[in-house]
Amino acid sequence: MAAKTLFAIRGLTRVFGQGDSAVHALRGIDLDLYHGEVVVLLGPSGSGKSTLLNILGGLDRPTGGSVHYDGQSLADLDERGLTHFRRDHVGFIFQFYNLIPSLTARENIELVTDLAATPLPVDEALAMVGLSHRGEHFPAQLSGGEQQRVAIARALAKRPRMLFCDEPTGALDLRTGVMTLEALMQANVAFQSTLLIVTHNADIARLGDRIIQFADGQIREIIANQSRAKPNELRW
Ligand code: ADP
Ligand code: MG
């Protein structure tokens, strides 16, 4: 079966600053991301992983090269077009959950579903991450793992075609990390969302259909994984 390309990335570069103090965070990335796959970006701290994610998700602009999403060049979108792309097509999960503390779990999710084109009912989103009983809780009343699952429910509720996960379990212990990763994989199963998971943990990388070894702003190797692991099979 020929896989459909969702993101086509060509010669992508990102330089921060100028002159002697310039940081070359991305040094020419060529990569296709296919509809429905789980891709893990594995690399050390400072290697440019978040920079790549932020550009693909329309949070940052590259200094060179191109990104096409479903045939559309992101560079050709104005701020309004980019906002639309972020709102309707992609979801983000960050290491530190980024929930609004003054809103309940339900209200945090509603912020997104009120704007989304074809949202999932909030109760369904909460059920998908195993938090049906936590909708009326505020972030401070939830554990770290529960907060991260609310953040995942918030992203899932858009039925995103693409989910960017930047060190999603970086702040969690083993048990809550497994539950978090299971919640993420739900998006892939339920909506065929493409997942790009950033980690520096080689064991988490086993969840991917492809593992991209990243170092110093460049792709070093792409490994095809014939049998992706389930979250509860991870050792870490
Ligand atoms: P990773 O996510 O792999 O840890 P990053 O993409 O965050 O790496 O960073 C890659 C490099 O770019 C690092 O050297 C970092 O210091 C630099 N960098 C990232 N964002 C900025 C920024 N906004 N301004 C200046 N330098 C940055
Ligand atoms: Mg990072």
Walk me through the structure.
With 236 residues, this protein is an alpha/beta fold. The protein has one domain: P-loop containing nucleotide triphosphate hydrolases (Rossmann fold). It is built from six helices and ten strands. The protein has helices at residues 49-56, 79-89, 105-113, 122-128, 144-156, 174-191; strands at residues 5-16, 23-34, 38-42, 64-69, 72-73, 90-93, 162-166, 194-199, 210-215, 218-224. It has a six-stranded mixed beta sheet with strand order 6-7-8-3-9-10, sandwiched between helices. It is globular. It binds adenosine-5'-diphosphate and magnesium ion. Residues 49-50, 166 line the site of magnesium ion.
List the helices and strands and how they pair.
Layout: E1 5-16, E2 23-34, E3 38-42, H1 49-56, E4 64-69, E5 72-73, H2 79-89, E6 90-93, H3 105-113, H4 122-128, H5 144-156, E7 162-166, H6 174-191, E8 194-199, E9 210-215, E10 218-224
Helix pairs in contact: 3-4, 3-5, 4-5, 5-6
From the alpha carbons, calculate the radius of gyration and give it in angstroms: 17 Å
> How many structural domains are formed by the residues?
1
- CATH class, named Alpha Beta
Bound molecules: adenosine-5'-diphosphate, magnesium ion
Number of strands: 10
Helix fraction, binned, reads: 25-40%
Query: What sequence of helices (H) and strands (E) makes up the elements?
Result: EEEHEEHEHHHEHEEE
**What is the end-to-end distance?**
34 Å
**pLDDT under 50 segments (min length 5)?**
none
The CATH superfamily is identified as P-loop containing nucleotide triphosphate hydrolases
CATH fold field value: Rossmann fold
